Each structure stands twice: as structure tokens, then as C-alpha cells.
Amino acid sequence: MGTSLNRRHFLSALAVSPWAAAASGRFLQVQKPEATMKSKRASEALVRLRGPMVSVTIPFADDGAIDFSGLRRWVAFVRERRVPVLFMTLGDSELEFLTEAEIEAVIRTVVREAAGRALVCGGTGPWATRQIIEFVKRMSDSGVDAMTLHFTPRIATAEEYGRAFAEIAASTDMPLLAYEVGGNFTLPLVRAIARLPTVIGMKCHDALYGYYDYARATRGDGFALLGPGQMRQHLFGHQVGSPAWLCLVSSLAPEIGLQFHDAIGRDDIKAARQLVFDYEEPLLELTRGYGWPHAYKSLQFLAGHYRTNAMRPPRRANTAPQLEPLRVLLRERFGIGNYQLR
Predict the structure, then answer these.
(1) What is the spatial distance between Cα 308 and Cα 177, in angstroms, rounded to a whole number?
(2) Is 292 among the domain residues?
(3) Which of 16, 24, 33, 201 is 20 to 30 Å from 283 by CA-CA measure?
(4) Cα torsion for 35, 37, 38, 43, to the nearest 10°?
């Protein structure tokens, strides 16, 4: 897709939702033009972007090096249990603490181990536009299915975000995703991004009202609004068109996330809600105090996939005494047990 076409779509969206309106916050009276057609590659990725997604967390050895054997072991585990989407995020995947070369190596490792049986969404670091463009181009031969664009929260205006997305989208046919966190995106900005032919969705951390506004404003645009990490949030999200969500439980016990997704598909909300009550709520209640992605990584450590739950300094891992209640919960509630803490 050429640069001029992507920019034309972007400027067309601006004409409907000018940046001046963005400064006044959210609004729902958005005049919707005809929906944007996505590129062939973007459309193919959208079809597969369904169900529980698992965050790719990074296992470290005691010396701080990435433990690629542990990463491959965990990817094989979720792949064999039919997890549909593997997803790299700025926080869970600790991209701010990895070098560009390490991020590339992680993406290529995950893609090889997934072997086409799961959609793999890689991610960039919080870099400048030119660095992101060069990185996405370099990953074009990796087999990764989509890339999430991460930017520094120091970017101050919706216009700066929008122009960066237009420039990056014009440079590649790689399916792209946005990453919204902390209220730094406006509704007109999301509406404009959604109309770019290679942009397929956004990981959204906004509260339910904002989540709903985004979903309503991008209907028909081939734009997947992705939940940030809870089945209970997807009980609402699926009703407004969200096809997928990050699922903490699925990183540990994939069958539970798949059962939940199946219940949602059957419109059996009672069964879906019961899975939230039985598994997700106890896990969230306990892990809330462990930190993120510390909790994700500690779960893989306790389950035996990762050799350590180490974090890169200055961050510190949870200690064995701190993890004991979590070990007990995994054994008693999930049937995952007898892994001995070191």
C-alpha cells in the first residue's frame, strides 16, 4: 500500500474528526464515513485474531541473560494446548528492559516455536518513528503475523501519535496494532488510526465507558479492540464486538480460557461467569500484590516452564516465601503442583 494512499485515508479521517475536537475529549456524535477496506494481509490476520491471547513474558537466567530454552518450552506448552494468539506487550514482555537485538531474537524464537499454529503479534520498543519503521521492515522476513507499535508516554498530543501511525503504516504491509494506556489516546485519534488499511486493532486499557466509545466509533472498520487481561472484562467486551483479550489464566491453564471462549460463543454467560468466579477471581486477588509482569513470570516459574522468576535490575523478583501462597493456590485450585521452589 503506497504512502499517498495511507495518508489520504488518514487525512480523510481527520476531516471527519478534526484534531481540534480531540482536545475537548471524548464524544459519541461521530459522523462515520464508509468503512475502510483493509489490505489482504491485514484481513487475514484479523480473521485469526480471536479468543484468549497470552502475553509473552521473558524468562531470564540468574545472570540476566534471556533463557531462550525456557521461552521455547513455554511456547510449546501453550501451542500444544491450542492457545490461538501469542502477544508481546510493552509491560508483560518487558520491552523497555530489552535491547532491540533481544526483542528481535525473542520474536523470531516465538514465531519458530509457534510453527504457524498460533497467531504471533510481536512488538516494538518505545522508540522514535524512524527506528520503529526500520525495525518493522527488518522483521518482515521473520514470519511474525502482526506488530504492536509502542511509543513513549512522553508524546504529548494526538496529532503526534496520528502522524507517526500514518508514516509507519505507509512504509509497510505488516499488520499493525496500537497500544493505548493511561488515557493518552483520544476518540478521534483512534477513529483515524482505525481507517488505516494496515492497522487491525488496539490493546485498550481504558475503563469500560472509554472501551465502549472506541468500539462504537470503529464499527465496520476492521479494527479489533483487545481487552487488557481479564475474562471478566471480556464478558462486556465481546458484547460490543471485541474478538480477543489478554488472558492471565490461559498463560497457565489454556483449557480454562478456551472453555470460557466456547461458553461466550454459545451465549452461555452463566457458564462463562462461573469460570471467572472459580479461577480468574482467586488468581487475580492473590497476584495483585505481586506486581506485573512479576506475577506472570512467577506463574511460569511455579509451573516449571521457567527456571527462575528473575527480573532485570533494578527490578526485583518475588521471593520464595512470597510465592508460597501462590504455589498453594496453583496446586489446590488448578491442579498444578509439586514444583519445588529453590
Answers:
(1) 31
(2) no
(3) 201
(4) 90
Q: DSSP letters of 293-310?
A: THHHHHHHHHTTSSS---
Q: Is residue 312 part of a domain?
A: no
Q: Residue 294 falls within a domain, yes or no?
A: no
Residue 20 domain boundaries: 3-25+34-266
Helical pair 3-16 and 158-170, crossing angle rounded to 10 deg = 150
The per-residue pLDDT for range 161-194, each reduced to its tens digit, is: 999 999 999 999 999 999 987 667 889 999 999 9
Asked if 275 contacts 259 with a C-beta cutoff of 8 angstroms, the reply is yes
The total number of structural domains in the chain stands at 1
- Domain CATH number, residue 84: 3.20.20.70
Please answer whether residues 163 and 196 qualify as being in contact, where contact means their C-beta atoms are separated by less than 8 angstroms: no
C-alpha cell at 138: 527488518
**Each residue of 193-221: pLDDT tens digit?**
999 999 999 998 887 788 889 999 998 89
Calculate the average pLDDT of the chain. 87
- For 290-302, how does the pLDDT look when each residue is reduced to its tens digit (9 = 90+)? 988 999 999 999 9
Instruction: Give the pLDDT confidence score for residue 182 in this predicted structure.
Output: 61
